[in-house]
Amino acid sequence: MGNVLQFDETKYIPKAIGDGRIGSSIDGIEKVQIPDDLLINNCDDPVSAIVESTYPDFFNHSSDIDYLQQRAILDPTLDMVESINEYTVSLNNSPEKTYLTSDTVCMSDNSLSALEHVHTPEFLNSIKCSGIPNHSITLKVGVPVMLLRNINQSSGLCNGTRLIITRLENRVIETKVLSGDMAGQKVFIPRMTLIPSDTKIPFKFQQRQFPIVVSFAMTINKSQGQSLSHVGLYLKKPVFTHGQLYVALSHVTSRKGLKILVYDDDGQITNEARNVVYKEVFHNLDLRQVYLALSPVRVPEQTRDFY
């Protein structure tokens, strides 16, 4: 099979992306050529360009639930996701409200007294890691957010559920559910005590904050389970884990809803995207089980037909 990503309108996410049959592989890394009609080729401001392609006519739809629930920008890295979200929030003309965390070292740590002197509140506030909000989050009515914790699983309020903000109070945030069986239902989000699960942090600390993050854009890893009609894939930095490109492409439900902005190692716009696939893991193994075992994200339900 060649290097060009071939799409079909009925099953347009090629299995060949998932099992690495497109492009020439070097240590599990391949270059896949993206069709011209899917590319964003010319732009002075890449963040503005990917937002405009994914959220066209945003000013007239900034509080439109149907418009927002079907769209998201995906990126491999948390830093770029935060930059895109900050920019897109700034386009919303509603009044903003900023919420700060209260961060402390966990009481269960045996060295609490010493750690309190070493890890000051200012230091704890500066820590950024996946799975918890930043110390400061700025929100507006009409902004889509994603839950970072399970609140009520029986009601569908789980980690990864997307909501839209309808009112901002000091102790509670009023939202409406964007998707699923609870779509359109009013939900109040309280502050919660959150403990990061990041094993790279050599001590435990906790923060008191609303368990949400803005979700105009989200990391590819965090996008699991989302079904979207419009996806902007922003690859300022390339994908870096097994199956990540396939998972990013699998979220969009039609070819016409996909746009890709990709850069090469020299920071120039290109038509080639990196695809990381370790082909040796497929030997004598079921493809879907390999993805479930090795991919950092769960394969979405709607992609099962592609295997």
Automatic annotation (TrEMBL):
Identification of the protein by name: ATP-dependent DNA helicase PIF1-like
Coiled coil regions in record: none
Any Pfam family matching the protein: Pif1_2B_dom
Top-level division of the source organism's lineage: Eukaryota
Domain DNA helicase Pif1-like 2B span(s) in chain numbering: 122-168
InterPro entries in UniProt: P-loop_NTPase (IPR027417), Pif1-like_2B_dom (IPR049163)
